[in-house]
Amino acid sequence: MKRTSNALTIIRKEFARFFGDRQLLFTTVIMPGLLIYIIYSIMGSGIGKITSEGQDAQVNVYVENMPASLAPMLMSMDTNMILEPFNAGVRQMVGRVEDKDNNIVLVCFPEDFDEMVQSYTPQSGVKAPNVEVYYNSANNASMRVYAEVTALLTAYEDGMSNLFDVNRMDDPAQAYDRADIDDVLGDVWSKLLPMLIIMMLFSGVMAIAPSAIAGEKERGTIATLLVTPMNRSELALGKIVSLSAIALLSGISSFIGIALSLPKMIQPGTDGLGLSFNYTFNDYAVLLLTILASVLIMASAVSLLSAYAKDVKNAGTMVTPFMLVVMLAGLLPMFQNGASDSLWIYLIPFYNSIEVMVAVFAHSVNWAAVAVMLASNAVYTAIAIWGLTRMFNSEKVMFGR
Q: FRET pair for 326, CA 20 to 30 Å: which of 89, 115, 354, 371?
C-alpha cells in the first residue's frame, strides 16, 4: 500500500509540473493532433487539386493541314479547335506551346496526309507519314488533351489494318483492371502515413521525457527524491507511468487528428476515379491501440536515455541518434509491399508498431500480429521500468560518482 502511495506521489508531482506549464501542455497534447490534422488536410487538398487540375480548363488545339479522314474525329473533341490559317506561323505557335501558362496543343499533319497513308507500304523502304503533336507536360490541361489526341490518332492507325482487338471497351461498364480502388489507395497511405505518425509521436515524447529526469538531475532535485524513504523501483514506476500517461495524451491527440483528417485526404475524385473512404471501426481501434503502445515504448526508451544523461542538453544529444533510427524505420514501408506476414517481425520494438500501422492503412490487419506487438511492447516497458530502477540505484549514474 505504501509502495503504491509513493508511486502515486511521484505521478501527482509530474502531473502538476506538466499541467501547470501551459506551453508544454500545448506543444505536447494539442499541437501533435492539430499539426497532423492540418498537414493531412493540406495533403488531401493538394491531391484533389492535382487530380482535378486541368480537367475543366479550355484548351486551344491548333491543327495544320487537317486531313479529311480525321476531321470528324478531331472536331468532336471537347476543345477549341483552330484550323489554318493561324494568326501566327506554325513555328511561332511552337514557341507559344513552350509557355506553360498557355493551354495549347499544336497538331501538325503532313500535306496530302490521306494520300500518303493510302499509298504507304512498309516494304517500300520509305518512312511512314509522321504527325507532330506539340504539348507542354508542365501544363496539366495541355497534357490531358495531348493524351486524348494521341489516343485518337493511335486508334485511327490501328483501324487501318486492324486484325484483332485487345481490351476493346464494347461495354462502358467493363473494367479490365481488376484492382480495387481501396486497395490502391491503401497501398499509398500505408507507405506515407506511418512515418508521419511516428515522427509526431516521437516529438511529443521528446517534449516531456528529457526534462522529467535529466532536468531533475540538472536542477539537483533528483537528490531530494533519492534520499526520501522511498524504494527506487517506486520512483522508477512513478516516472514511467506519469510520462507514459502524458505521452498517451499526445498519442490520443495524434489519433484524433488522424481520424478527422483521413476523410479529407481521401476525397471524391474526378472522371470516374471514385476515390473512396473505407476504414472501419476496427481499423480505428487497432490504430489507437498501436499509437498508445508506441508512445509507451518511446517514453520508456527516452526515460532510460534521460536518466543516463548529465543534463537536458546532453539528453537531447543522446536521443537524436535514437530518433534517426526510429525515423529510418518509418521510411521502410516505402520500400516494401504491404505488412509482413512473419510474426517474429512484430517482436522488434518500434518497427512492430509501424508494421501494424501499415496493415491498418492497407486494409490487411492480422490480429495475431497485433497481439504479438501489444504483448512485446508491454514486456519492453516492464524491462525499461526495471532498468530505470537499477539506474536510480546507481550513484555513478545519478551523481557521476
A: 371
Per-residue cell: 10: 511521484
Does this model's pTM top 0.85? My answer is no
Q: Which residue has the cell 487528428?
A: 257
Q: To the nearest whole percent, how much of the chain has pLDDT over 90?
A: 8
Selection from 109, 105, 107, 85 nearest residue 97 by Cα: 105
Of the candidates 246, 238, 303, which has an alpha carbon nearest to the alpha carbon of residue 7? 238
The three grid cell numbers given for residue 63, joined into one nine-digit string:
491543327
293 CB burial (10 A radius; 0-12, 13-18, 19+): buried
Predicted confidence (pLDDT) per residue in 215-258, tens digit: 777 777 777 777 777 777 777 777 777 877 777 777 777 778 77
pLDDT, tens digit, 9 for 90 and up, residues 140-160? 788 888 888 888 888 887 776
271: left (phi over 0), alpha (psi -120 to 50) or beta: left
Query: Which residue blocks in 123-231 are alpha helix, DSSP H?
Result: 140-160, 181-219, 221-227
